[in-house]
Amino acid sequence: VPDMAPATLSLRSLLRKATAIMWTSECELEFQQMKEILTDERYIKLSDPELNTELLMDKSKVASAGYILIQ
Whole-model pTM? Predict the structure, then answer.
């Protein structure tokens, strides 16, 4: 998902150690937006065992690595 790290800044701030967890309206908005994006049929499909499959990794300066299988 393009630009996912900046789009989840408030949510990821909740993961910092020694930080009180405060669910803000920004967190809720980011959560709802990511839920819509990640459940979109463009991103979720059943794989076809007959096709070649690749594993891709992406690392951001502001978030941990993400992995995806593509066909």
Answer: 0.61
